[in-house]
Amino acid sequence: IFGQTLKPDYSDYRHFAAYTRKNPHDHALITQAISELESDGTLAGYRQKWSLSAQSEQALSTDERGSAFNWQAFFAALTSVAFLKGAAITLSVALLSHFIAIVISIPMAITLNSHGKSALKVVLKAYVSIFRGAPTLLQLLFIWNALPQFFPIFREQWFTPFLATLVALSINESAYQVEINRAALSAVDGGQELAADALGMTRKQVYRYVIFPQALRVALPPTINEFISLLKTTSLASVISLQELLAITQVQVARTFEFTEYYAAALIYYLAMVFFFLFLQKRVERRFSWADRKKASANAA
């Protein structure tokens, strides 16, 4: 394990390192190189130029802790402002993009469930197929890197990684949410729509008072499941420098080389968010259990 070779004379110094293979031959070569730099005065020149500590430190040292888990670093990460901000950005992106996806998908689902054929339905089917078939990471990279190439307006400072992630995940998620909404709308008995028409309700009233309330019960469980999946998908945004939870974790790991501790802290944050929405899903399902036909029939019997 590498120790410090050059250390500045100030208390705020942060440790940095470079990766090498766990190979004794490589370690021997590095030790030899450092010894040569020390003997010919190169390291002494660096110390003088950059005000580095003159204390001689071993390049290759043995870490007495071995692979022990650093609980102090783990709890520091759990309570750090950086991790809290990263988790807040992750949750914000997931909530906003899923809300936008739902708003987009509802009229699309209504159109696709309508009778007859039209050019619009063909376009919507192509939209759903393309964005469900293309990898989410590819869509994210396309919007962040390729979109500014075709449209110069996206080269401005307002087009941030947060906005690019929001657009990419909203579009991608809407393609999945369309199918959930279509299935929920199809689950509503067609006879109720005919009865509402017979009562003289307008099309808007039929959807608002008859179809949507019943479709909501069917759509909610898979929608929450889809949101949980989206919450984990937000980690892909780290590749375009969005400072969400995983990106913050990677920065801390690169700075300290304490992989297990920081990844474990990130895992706790993800699990806490996921378990909260799983709990919410159970509460919602119990709330709408009165509308379950099977349970209603069993209670009536």
Topology, element by element:
Blueprint lengths: L23 H16 L2 H9 L20 H8 L2 H33 L5 H15 L2 H15 L10 H27 L2 H9 L4 H31 L11 H12 L2 H29 L5 H8 L1
Helix pairs in contact: 3-11, 4-7, 4-10, 5-7, 6-7, 7-9, 8-9, 9-11, 10-11
Keywords: Amino-acid transport, Cell membrane, Membrane, Transmembrane, Transmembrane helix, Transport
Membrane topology: Multi-pass membrane protein
Main location: membrane
Characteristics:
transmembrane transporter activity, 12 helices, 301 residues, MetI-like fold, 70% helix, 2 domains, elongated, mainly alpha
- By DSSP, the count of extended strands is 0
Average of pLDDT = 83
What is the makeup of the main sheet? none
Helix and strand string, N-terminal first?
A: HHHHHHHHHHHH
CATH level 1 class label of the largest domain: Mainly Alpha
Please give the CATH architecture of the largest domain: Orthogonal Bundle
Kindly estimate the percentage of residues that lie in beta strands according to DSSP: under 5%
Number of helices: 12
Number of domains: 2
Between the first and last Cα atoms, what is the distance in angstroms?
72 Å
- Structural class label: mainly alpha
Shape: elongated
Unreliable parts: 58-65
CATH H-level superfamily of the largest domain: MetI-like
> CATH topology of the largest domain, which one?
MetI-like fold
Q: Helix share of residues? A: over 70%
Radius of gyration: 28 Å
Protein name: Transporter
Pfam families: BPD_transp_1
Family: Belongs to the binding-protein-dependent transport system permease family. HisMQ subfamily.
GO molecular function, one term: transmembrane transporter activity
